[in-house]
Write a structure and sequence with these properties.
The protein has 172 residues and is mainly alpha-helical. Helices cover 73% and strands 0% of the residues.
């Protein structure tokens, strides 16, 4: 809201900056999730390469090592797909991306901020920042959930591959 002389109220400014800081924190969380997913892609891909090499060397060893190494390769492929889906850009379906361009009706000058008010003040800007925060929060939750599942698949594949390699070692 604005005072009678057209300047921004201190509490609007503080709320705007506090919300903008939260948006920045959530954006950093989205970037953290992307970094973790990228690392998982490298780990799962590398482990899958090693698993496939071991699988090609184990053709003459019997059916149990082949099944365990094939299962490990499948689990690693699933982990890789899940991690890549976490990295994949996701656009909101309901037009919330316009919030970032500043083209939402909530950012209109006629709705709560005066022309004398500097950029970043008014109810419209607070609503836009709240929409950004909600979008980043949802996106970070989805990405971290996918990363969690990918880690679970990599851990399971590691146990299965270890079992298959151990069976190979013992049987040779």
């Amino acid at each position: 809201m604005s005072d009678t002389d057209g300047s921004c109220a201190a509490n609007d400014h503080g709320a705007r900056h506090g919300l903008a800081a939260e948006v920045a924190v959530m954006f950093a969380e989205v970037q953290r999730a992307d970094s973790k997913a990228t690392t998982l892609c490298g780990i799962a891909g590398g482990m899958m390469g090693v698993d496939i090499a071991a699988l090609s060397a184990a053709r003459e060893s019997g059916w149990l090592p082949l099944i365990t190494l094939t299962t490990a390769a499948a689990l690693l492929a699933v982990a890789l797909i899940i991690a890549m889906s976490a990295i994949r850009p996701a656009l909101p379906r309901d037009g919330r991306l316009r919030t970032f361009a500043g083209t939402t009706p909530a950012n209109d000058q006629s709705e709560g901020s005066s022309p004398a008010c500097p950029a970043g003040c008014g109810d419209g800007h607070l609503r836009a920042d709240a929409a950004k925060l909600a979008l980043f929060t949802t996106l970070a939750q989805q990405k971290f959930r996918a990363v969690k599942w990918a880690v679970d698949f990599v851990a399971t594949a590691t146990a299965v591959a270890t079992l298959g390699l151990l069976i190979l070692y013992v049987s040779s």
